[in-house]
Here is the input.
Amino acid sequence: MPMKGRFPIRRTLQYLSQGDVIFKSSVKVMTVNYNTAGELSEGARGKFVFFNIPQIQYKNPWVQIMLFRNMTPSPFLRFYLDNGEQVLVDVEDKTNKEITEHIKKILGKSKETLEKEERERKKLSHPATFGPKKYHLRECMCEIEGQVPCPAFVPLPKEMRGKYKAAMKNEA
Amino acid sequence: MSVPRGAVHAKWIVGKVIGTKMQKTAKVRVTRLVLDPYLLKFFNKRKTYFAHDPLQQCVVGDIVLLKALPERRSKHVKHELAEIVFKVGNVIDPITGKHCAGTRFLENLSDSENLTEADTTYLSEKLQELKVCSTDK
Here is the structure.
């Protein structure tokens, strides 16, 4: 059964995680003013609000996004930063791709910062250790390649089994 | 542990004023987009905040920018009014700087729009009638 709605692909996790606009930590509020009629705000209203805003909110869950409709004749975006600064972006007659590129350039985290953050996150979890699933990749030593496999799947060789070792000790 | 500005999580917030009945305090409703885990769609979730407004310049329906106070002012008031973004009935388009209403520009605030001469005469007649009624009593 296909998904319900006009463009249900907007509601898939894969689509949401494909959003590439990640705001800097100083951006707190994003306000979008657009109009429901008129060709000039077609890029903002038609495409940006419908397709890109879910991606942006998914990637930046702590940024408050507010949408205002039909308040002013011209569509615009407004960002409120942590230091009190406000950034006004005129969006009239722009396609949604241009808008996202512009936002990424002015207020998005650059590739280097993103890579750095990823590396730091990797550093925190050591991949060679094992333990509870919450903190490590593997739970038991038997899951690591090169170690003795789990006796639930592959029986241990005779020399490692307890009853053989006890029998050898008795003989000697 | 140092407490930076705002013992609250939200430092800057934009919301709509819903009540001004308290003295020097405005009740502000803030909506955030929250993802529904099953539908994977964003819905507005409301939350009300109380903001300190010393000059009582907010009217119900204004869009307002709040700033977190460094420490709580009272049990519920943790923010103060930083700026009125859009005043109700008096919206200024930030790009052109003109007054506007909906998708139209208002050229002049004082000029009452679309009032023809017939309207003004009709109104003045009505006013005279009212004056007559009051003197009769």
The mean pLDDT of chain A is 85.
